[in-house]
Design brief:
- The protein has 7 helices and 2 strands.
- It is mainly alpha-helical and about 170 residues long.
- The chain has a two-stranded antiparallel ribbon.
- A hairpin with a 6-residue loop joins strand 1 and strand 2.
- Helix 1 runs antiparallel to helix 6, helix 1 runs parallel beside helix 7 and helix 3 packs parallel to helix 6.
- The protein is globular, with a radius of gyration of 16 Å.
- The model has no long low-confidence stretch (mean pLDDT about 95).
């Protein structure tokens, strides 16, 4: 297995969970929050997708999928650069979306991400992509960070789906 194949598989697993979690749910179910300060499935899926979109576009040197029409489709009260990081209860509650909207955006980001990672070699992973940290962040570390964050949020969304469906 190559580095590119490994990364493509990881992003594909996130996509599978996104589709499994959102399948057949209503907008109300996607917005369910077990406590007033808790995240909803809609927010979790939107946020994990925004993180992948923001971070992958940055390292790939491409425009974010979000700013190519998806921000308008969602119609959220946030700026285009907002990824959900640091959102409080009110902002979390503002993310309301259908399954089709969430999975459509996620699939578009997945396509852009996979298109980028398919071209990577082992040597590419050592490229420094963020010098604001000590040590500076390499492409490999950034990709692992995105995958880890997205899998955590996908797991949280799966847990919420279990609460909603009773299983």
């Amino acid at each position: 297995m190559t580095t590119a194949e490994l990364l493509e598989d990881a992003f594909g697993r996130i996509r599978e969970v996104v589709h499994q979690v959102t399948s057949g749910l209503t907008t109300e179910q996607l917005g369910f929050r077990p406590q007033p300060e808790a995240n909803s499935i809609a927010w979790l899926i939107w946020h994990l997708t925004r993180i992948a979109d923001d971070h992958i576009a940055d390292v790939a040197g491409t425009e974010q999928v979000w700013t190519r029409g998806w921000a308008d489709r969602f119609g959220l009260p946030f700026g285009d650069a907002d990824t959900g990081y640091g959102h409080g209860s009110e902002a979390v509650g503002a993310v309301r979306a259908t399954t089709d909207l969430l999975t459509g955006y996620h699939d578009a980001v997945w396509e852009q991400s996979v298109s980028f990672v398919r071209k990577l070699t082992d040597a590419d992973l050592d490229r420094v992509v963020d010098e604001r940290w000590d040590p500076p962040v390499t492409l490999g570390v950034r990709l692992v960070s995105v995958i880890a964050d997205d899998l955590q949020h996908a797991g949280q969304a799966a847990y919420l789906r279990g609460l909603i469906s009773g299983g």
